[in-house]
Amino acid sequence: MPVSSVNSQIIYDALKDAGVSIISALPETWLVHLVGMADADPEVTLVRLNKEEEGVGISAGAHLAGRKSAMLMQNHGLLTSVNGIVSLAQLYRIPLLMLVSYRGEMGERDPWQTEGGLVTERVLDALGIMYRKMSDPALAARDIRQAQTLAESSLRPVALLLTRELMWEE
Amino acid sequence: MLREDALRAIYPRLKEQIVVTIMGAVAVELYNLGHRPNFFYLEHGMGLASSMGLGLALSLPERPVTVLDGDASLLMNLGTLSTMARYRPPNLTHIIFDNESLLSVGGFPSATTTGTDLAGVARESGIRHVTRADTVEAVEEAYAAAAERPALSVIHSKVEAVGPPSFAMDIGLLENRFEFARHLRGGQP
To answer: What is the pLDDT of residues B8-32, one digit of tens each?
Structure first.
């Protein structure tokens, strides 16, 4: 599978360096290595979800308890989480570090991913969520560190869009 | 059974727990019994109180956590029962007050009026300790057992579709949130 294990490791190491100890996830092709790393790591609690919106609740509980968390999801998972993001995380000023695989963007071959790609950034803009597209592995650690810093200082959700260039090797 | 009476019966134990409630009548009734810094009232984010409780229980394994949920809220996030069953934190108790109604928005019947059995759903989701408790005494007994049991427990209680005369609570959403976080973090903001 041409999902980049090297870049997944870079992302995972950056999450660890940022102090993340709870990761919620719903499996997605591009996230397969990241989920596997969290599962194998005794220092991290991996919470496998049935629906991405549950992760907003998990992260809210973790934050209020003083633990740092991250959410791994596809952009369609972001779409299905919108109410939780608005009426839990934003209403109650909960920081969320959301790592979102950006399907349906340039180069997408799967027709079923294309509508999600079309609306992802506009939905983030409409929600007032600061985001950055991650495509350069050399900047990945910085991107994650900065996103978490902003989430914690603003007490708001922040999104990192994991692009094809970063996650896929072919 | 009135939910308010059930809450009053278990309040002495709830006082010692980290508690997350759903919005509406449950929140007001607990608040009126006596607010504590270890109580968090999720006034929106419908369905996610149980997910928050799971996040809290996993983050603070030494602290007992209780979620006060309702039928309509739980039906909005049924997958939460499977997720809880998967991780089964021993310090988590999930109480479902089932009034068969979306009471706070005008009393529309929920799907528990037409055959959905939430205790059954919890059990078949893989949760081992599921108790039906439809009287005040039964709730008190079931909650005492859950508090003593080092295992994930669910209590399903049918209650009357009656709520408080007012949903007003003299605590701001963010006031509650920051007070709760400060309490959990041992005084740190």
So the answer is: 999 999 999 999 999 999 999 999 9
Structure tokens at B154: 């669910």
d(CA B162, CA B6): 13
By CA distance, what is A63's nearest residue in B? Answer: B181
Q: Who's near A84: CB < 8 A, 6+ residues apart?
A: A53, A56, A57, B45, B48
Looking at the 3D structure of chain A, how many domains does it have? 1
Token pair listed for A134: 């991650």
Q: How far apart are CA B92 and CA B150, in angstroms?
A: 9
Q: Give the CATH number of the domain where residue A94 resides.
A: 3.40.50.970
Q: Return the CA Rg of chain B.
A: 15
CATH superfamily of B3-184: Thiamin diphosphate (ThDP)-binding fold, Pyr/PP domains (3.40.50.970)
| Structure-token pair, residue A82 | 């919108």
Q: With pLDDT > 70 as the criterion, what percentage of chain A qualifies?
A: 99
Determine which of A22, A45, A56, A88 to mutate to test the interface with B (most B C-beta atoms within 10 Å): A88
H or E stretch at B97: strand B92-98
Note down the domain range covering A119.
5-167
Amino acid at A97: L
What CA–CA distances, in Å, run from B98 to A166, A167, B83, B184?
A: 47, 45, 21, 29
Domain boundaries, chain B: 3-184
Let me know: does B28 contact B164? Beta carbons within 8 Å.
yes
Interchain contact, A91 vs B83, CB within 8 Å: no
Which secondary-structure segment (H or E) carries B122? helix B118-124
ipTM above 0.95, yes or no: yes
